[in-house]
Design goal:
mainly beta; 5-stranded antiparallel β-sheet; 17 strands; 50% strand; globular
């Protein structure tokens, strides 16, 4: 079962229910990354984002994995609270271990979970929760960074766009089912 794909140079990176994979299109060689050769606790890889330098895997129950293509070294980003569904320490790290999607753009990692979302610039984390952002839900299935400040969030309660300050949410009205767009600007917090 394939959940995600990323193309980088001559490599095709694949997120699967059995781990992450890399296909070298020049040689035809496949490489499997799973609990035996990575810091994964679980093998359900739900998303992948690749650059010539780094590859990021969104892993169900294992947080966010970063693979350095030059050194072959792995880094693992975990929720500092453990698998706690409540955020005890906001902006201290990845929001949860159940990572469903990842997007790397402009040296920023955007990570989606079922309990909120995270943005990482290589030094600082910023977390997004419904209680203090414009997200319509913390249950995010997919995320796509546009650049270092803007991103799209696909949640179970609609599509959200963040421009770095303000939010727009696109979904069916909760009252009558008619499509609607709501905007939450920074001043409305």
């Amino acid at each position: 079962m394939v959940y995600g794909v990323a193309v980088e140079g001559e490599n095709v990176w694949v997120a699967t229910a059995a781990g992450g994979c890399r296909l070298n299109t020049r040689t035809g060689q496949w490489t499997l990354y799973n609990e035996r050769n990575t810091p994964m606790n679980e093998i359900w890889v739900y998303g992948v984002s690749a650059t010539p330098a780094k590859v990021y895997f969104a892993v169900w129950g294992s947080g966010l994995l970063e693979y350095d293509q030059k050194t072959g070294r792995w880094d693992k980003y975990d929720d500092p609270d453990g698998e706690n569904e409540m955020v005890l320490f906001k902006d201290q790290g990845l929001i949860h271990e159940i990572v469903t999607s990842v997007s790397f753009v402009d040296n920023i990692v955007w990570a989606a979970t079922y309990f909120g979302d995270s943005r990482y610039d290589g030094r600082y984390w910023h977390n997004f929760l419904t209680k203090d952002s414009g997200l319509p839900s913390n249950f995010t299935n997919t995320i796509k960074g546009v650049d270092a400040t803007r991103a799209w969030f696909g949640t179970d309660k609609g599509l959200a766009y963040y421009d770095g300050v303000n939010w727009a949410v696109y979904r069916s009205s909760l009252k009558d089912g008619i499509p609607e767009m709501t905007v939450r600007d920074a001043e409305a917090k």
